[in-house]
Amino acid sequence: MADRARALAPAAAADRRPSPRPRAAAPTGWAVSLLVWLTLVASLASLSSLFQGVGWWVAGAGVSAVVLGASLGVRALGAGPLGGWLAGLVSGLLVTSALVSGGTAVLGVVPTAATVQRLRDLADQATTTIVEGTAPVEVQDGLLAVVVAAVLGVAVVSDLVATVGRLPGLTGAFPAVVLAVPSFVPGTAVRWPWVVLAVLLWLALLAVSTGRRPTRSAAVGGVAAVGVAALLTAVVPFGGVAPLSGVGTGTGLATGVNPVVDLGDDLRRGAPLTVLTYRSSDTDGTYLKLVDLVDFSGRTWSPADADVDPDLDVEALPDAPGIAEGTSRRVVSTEVSIGALRSPYLPVPVPPQTITGLDDGWSYVDQSGVTVRSTTESTQGLDYTVESRPVDPSPEQVVAALGDQGADMSAYLSVDGVPRTVSDLAAEVTADAANPFDAAVALQDWFRDGDFTYSEETPVDEGYDGNGLDAVERFLEVKSGYCVHFASAMAVMARTLGIPSRMAVGFLPGTPTGFGDETARAVSSDDLHTWPELYFEGLGWVPFEPTVGLGTPQSYLQETGVEPSAAPSASDAATPEPTADEPSTAPSAGGPTPGADESQDASAQQGGAGPAPVVGGALGLAVLAALLVVPSGLRGARRRRRLTADPPDRALAAWREVLDTALDLGLAPPSGATPASGAAALDEVLRSAPRPDEEARVALASLAAALEGERFGADPAGGHVADDARRVLRGLRASSSRGRRAAALLAPRSLVATTEARRAAGA
After folding, report:
1. Crossing angle of the two packed helices 141-159 and 173-180, in degrees rounded to 10
2. Which of 184, 174, 103 is nearest to 141 (CA)?
């Protein structure tokens, strides 16, 4: 008890004693700075598959060397970590200005107004390169400026974390982000030698910064991490994979087109980007179709499963199915020039008759004559001409098409589990229609002329942003959405009326540009669109436009008022869904082949069953796990180092751990407290607990006495201080609520506490 009394002496007496020796600084010397730089430049080299040449890498390595070298040099002259960091920041800004100013800076390094304007121009140039370029891109001035600025930021933050924050291990977060970039850009390969080198350098950084050799478990963990990363990169399609095809959409370095389930995200992606231009003999422009969605699972629409036959080249397109010989048709010529769009499907006006300007890598999908696809190429940079022949029937020809469908259309009529409210609403809207064609027109007019509004945000806010039956039912209640909701609702309602339907994904006609002979139309990312197509024997697949405020319906889409002689009714068309043991009947000659209009990889079936949502969920869980585990892991490693410290600072290390644990639990003594007053404050915490821990109080007194002897009496502390510290830690945790203990475990404040806050009680 005498020792305990001595340890808890008044603060005033302790203050008269000599000041404690300063705490040993964390390793921030040349070895740590060198390893931080080497890890950074090795990870930067892993981006070589994205950029041409090595000049960008040399510039980035040079800027980071200046930042870290200047910081190290100033610290070596006696300045503190903060002074060194400021020196590195200023040096990095000056050398970056010299690299990107292009002669507009004073003395080559001091920015001027002209420098600011040049930076704006470079940013615009870099944006164009990133959006329209294909990896590996040529690194011009704009992109070089972006790379240098990004490296400057990473180097400055890394130096701040390693020197001022004294947590060099955390600098590995920045190379980790850089290493992951190639995995998310389609068509690029991960440079694994650089990845492995960066990981090994980071492990060396951990060893040097902690002053300990890596344990066997740490080495095994590092190797396992590299192995898992290699496996994920090899088997998971990170790079903007389109479930329509399994081919990268180009997200990041080009504008891609995802299937209808992602079209809302595409429309909300931000500033519109021109993806293609075209000239057309149709003065009103034309819709450009990419793919048709036929199969409806009740959860989402998806293309039918059909193989692409390379022998079905575009030089000999078949005529569109279902169009009678006597039906009037227009001839439209369209010259298309693709810009930033990267898609495995070719945007074409429908139905196409001839396509010129393509190589053998493109094929039409079996018997549809509508969808044109490549399994090896993308659309970016293509120039081609399409001659199409859309129907333009007279009212008499429309009436003549009101008989039997004449083909098995069960694939275009199936809707599993359609809510009664949807089918009843469809019947109500079309109650006065004289025939199925009039019913389709009535549905279109009801959407466009009723109480519906166009909104890309309402479905997200209301939680029905999709195209499954649940989303359709909710959309019909709220009456607000965008093209996906209008098209899917009309297609489903048409099927309940016995009218075969499918959904088309493509582009609106775009915006006119130029004058006279230079007149063309520009199609942007905002023109991404989907619309329903309904089938009528004699007219073929007829496009409708139910989306309010967008597009223009065909002029012949007018109600006829004529009773058909043998039109199919809803009850007649309710074809039973084929089972696995009872395949659907083959189509008759001349009719469309169910499921043959479009194609997709098997992994894309049933919408969300593809790999992308699974990968996204797994990555989300991995990020969440890292956020929860990494802080507690770093905190645990620090605790182990302190409680296994050797003389002459054994008691000081144990005392610091007690103070940091108290800080994490919200029980830290006041800033500036002496060891004695700090121990008194913690003793009061232990004494005031609901169940006072006397053993912990005794251990606290013993630890404080050992610290006093070590600091002021040159009396090395014994090994018991670690046991005393553990006893105190258990007592402090037992004195805290569950919420505080959880916060201390998952988000320990001591990892980011200021020097003053962690210097409580003389630490």
Report:
1. 150
2. 103
